[in-house]
Design goal:
about 110 residues, globular, alpha+beta, about 40% strand, 6-stranded antiparallel beta sheet, two-stranded antiparallel sheet, single chain, 2 helices
Length: about 110
């Protein structure tokens, strides 16, 4: 699934096949997002090597949560440049040098 947020292309994988395709097609400086500690949709923000405004990261993190769970709670979403993500098996990945953002769906 593809979304446009203030001119930035944001892609979301809804299942393992979609997540793997996203990872394989992303560029090194694109930003990858995933919910912390649980299986979730993968999200890629295509950056064109630009510095991303924080509100774009927040909007993409919210999409990640909304396409993963219908629960109303606070969730943590990790994000990092694609080059920091290593595909292990299928859509299972290892990543480092990441930041974490909180998404509150109770609002």
């Amino acid at each position: 699934e593809t979304f446009w947020i203030e001119g930035y292309k944001v892609e979301l994988g809804k299942n393992e096949k979609g997540n793997v395709a996203l990872l394989k097609n992303a560029r090194a400086k694109d930003i990858w997002l995933h919910m912390k500690g649980i299986p979730s949709a993968h999200v890629i923000i295509h950056t064109d090597k630009q510095q991303l405004p924080q509100n774009i990261i927040e909007a993409a993190a919210t999409l990640c949560v909304e396409f993963t769970t219908t629960s109303k709670d606070k969730f943590l979403v990790d994000y990092t440049p694609r080059r920091e993500v290593t595909i292990q098996n299928g859509a299972n990945v290892l990543y480092n040098k990441y930041k974490t953002i909180e998404v509150d769906t109770r609002v």
